[in-house]
Prior knowledge:
By secondary structure, the chain is mainly alpha-helical. It contains twelve helices and no strands. The mean pLDDT is 88.
Amino acid sequence: MRDALLLDAAVGGVLGLLIGSFLNVVIHRLPKMLYRGWLTDAMANLSSSQQVPSLWQLVFGTASAAPPPLVAHADEALQQVDALPPLGLARPASRCGHCGHGIRWYENIPVLSFLVLRARCSACGTPIGWRYPAVELVTGALFALCAWRFGLTLTGAAWAAFCALLVCQFMIDLDTQLLPDSLNYLLLWLGLVASASGLTGVPLASAVWGAVAGYLGLWLIFHLYRLATGKEGMGFGDFKLLAALGAWLGADYLIAIVLVSSLVGAVLGGLLLMAGRLAHKDIPISFGPFLAGAGLVCLAIGPDTVRAWAPFAFPFNALIG
């Protein structure tokens, strides 16, 4: 039995390393794809080719016209964006960001290529960031854990997908202060489907109410904070991420998730201080990485362990089915 678990974990770990390599692409490219799309939409709304009321007219009235220099600049910017090469998760092939050297398949083997290349581009010698093998190793470890705990089953695959999406959200929000809706919604719907299919062991009612309470809880805190201070304390992506975590772990886990997120925030903040990332007080700290990290921690240590360590975080456990 133990040998079978070890084999499952080994297979899961190898798959995790491969998926982790792909996650690095998602983390790097998805924000750029979003920014390009937003810029294209904004310029298209101001360009001379706009056939319906423009963004300018919607704001200032149909009788108003955008200043000609602004329209000209919008046309020029739109042409420049349209002239850019296609950008997606699959294309173009991975290249060195410094010299443009195309990364060969044997230079893209998770972790191993990083070590063989001594953390440098083979063409120009530019250092390769440690975050790339770190994402691969973390994803491999999480996939191995899922395979060890649930086997090479649909349940294990579901929780592995949960981990992969949270790793992406953690890193993207840490880099850009964005939590892409495409990943948040995928995480939310997968959680509800996994609950309805019996893969997570969370009753569907608890998953649905977890999503509802997760979103509305942070939504209420957001608006109360804004009324009290006149400032926005978090983004709407945080609401959606907590809703997704509620769908995966259940409504009774929401308080525990928030408590664990505070611990993750303390650890992450300390590491960023040591790295010099928080040397200036005007640098905002995203809440998304704390939530994503809390979801991963809750999975790693196990739901039963969370209940045993923090029973006070489950006051409504008996009321939720």
